[in-house]
């Protein structure tokens, strides 16, 4: 079991707790409540598998970059605690699982799967040629609620599918904004290795300001979503809590003090995703 534990550490499997609510938001809105258990189960499997594919492949293609970065040099694949063969095996198994989940969820999810895989695999290369990689990561994560919506509704391009695309934008700006914060830790490494990132290209103060702007846009989009869906009090309470969490996040990180990035990146964003999930669930329940 040690290789399995090492692989789960490699992909930070415990962080799935704040990734799953992305997909669940699309699922809840598409079903206007809770879907069939079969659909819920396979959406959960698909989301966990997709994240494993993305993280596993990222660790594989970035292993040489990680080895030159003191912050990431202790990762299992770099330190030798997990073999490249095991990393590939886990990633390929996750891709197969994702394919099975898409097949179980219906024809359209299976048809759209190659496009999703393009982003899941392709994101890892974007920082080699564009400093917009933060928002490409956000867009890739935003495919989760979009995919869950398709799994429930079986459609994506009708007049009634606007909420799905709005969720895509919300997650794009949310994830892109906090990836900007996270990337501030590696400015010197990125410049040395000629990797593309907004903090490395424009500086940490600008990156933090852009992150705050991205999260402000996210809050506005969340308000538009609440108005479109005619949500009641539980949603707006959650919306207010999310604003407070964003403010807390940005007060923790300063251009001259990045010591609390992990708290801002992992803990607070977990709170945000769970808050959004339960506020939407509560609003739908009280309809």
Task: Characterise the protein shown here.
- With 287 residues, the chain is mostly helical.
- 77% of the residues lie in helices and 0% in strands.
- It contains 14 helices and no strands.
- Helix 2 runs parallel beside helix 14, helix 3 (37-61) runs antiparallel to helix 6 (84-105) and helix 9 runs antiparallel to helix 12 (204-228).
Describe the secondary-structure layout.
Elements: H1 2-10, H2 20-31, H3 37-61, H4 63-67, H5 76-79, H6 84-105, H7 107-126, H8 133-153, H9 162-183, H10 187-192, H11 198-202, H12 204-228, H13 233-252, H14 261-285
Question: What's the gist of this structure?
Answer:
With 287 residues, the chain is mainly alpha-helical. It is built from 14 helices and no strands.
Keywords:
0% strand, 287 residues, mainly alpha, Tetracycline Repressor, domain 2, 14 helices
Measured between the Cα atoms of the first and last residue, the distance is 47 Å
| Uncertain stretches of 5 or more adjacent residues | none
Radius of gyration: 19 Å
Mean pLDDT across every amino acid position: 92
3D shape: globular
Q: What's the tally of helices?
A: 14
* Secondary-structure content class: mainly alpha
CATH architecture call: Orthogonal Bundle
Strand fraction: under 5%
Can you tell me the CATH superfamily? UbiA prenyltransferase
According to CATH, what is the class?
Answer: Mainly Alpha
Sketch the topology as an H/E string, one letter per element.
HHHHHHHHHHHHHH
Number of domains: 1
The count of DSSP E runs of length 2 or more, i.e. the number of strands, is: 0
């Amino acid at each position: 079991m040690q290789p399995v534990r090492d692989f789960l550490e490699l992909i930070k499997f415990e962080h799935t707790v704040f990734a799953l609510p992305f997909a669940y938001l699309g699922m809840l809105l598409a079903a206007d409540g809770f879907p069939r258990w079969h659909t819920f189960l396979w959406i959960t499997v698909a989301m966990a598998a997709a994240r494993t594919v993305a993280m596993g492949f990222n660790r594989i293609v970035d292993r040489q970059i990680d080895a030159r970065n003191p912050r990431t040099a202790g990762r299992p694949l770099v330190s030798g605690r997990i073999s490249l063969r095991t990393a590939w095996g886990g990633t390929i198994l996750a891709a197969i699982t994702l394919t099975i989940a898409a097949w179980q969820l219906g024809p359209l999810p299976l048809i759209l799967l190659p496009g999703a895989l393009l982003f899941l695999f392709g994101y890892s290369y974007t920082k080699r040629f564009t400093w917009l990689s933060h928002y490409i990561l956000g867009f890739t994560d935003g495919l989760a609620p979009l995919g869950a919506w398709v799994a429930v509704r079986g459609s994506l391009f009708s007049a009634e599918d606007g909420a799905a695309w709005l969720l895509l934008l919300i997650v794009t700006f949310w994830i892109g904004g906090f990836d900007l914060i996270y990337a501030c830790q590696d400015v010197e490494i990125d410049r040395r290795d000629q990797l593309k990132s907004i903090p490395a290209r424009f500086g940490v103060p600008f990156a933090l300001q852009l992150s705050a702007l991205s999260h402000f846009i996210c809050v506005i989009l969340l308000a538009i979503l609440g108005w479109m869906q005619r949500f009641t009090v539980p949603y707006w309470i959650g919306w207010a809590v999310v604003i407070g969490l964003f403010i807390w996040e940005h007060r923790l990180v300063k251009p001259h003090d990045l010591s609390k990035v992990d708290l801002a990146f992992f803990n607070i964003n977990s709170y945000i995703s769970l808050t959004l999930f339960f506020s939407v669930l509560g609003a739908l329940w009280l309809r």
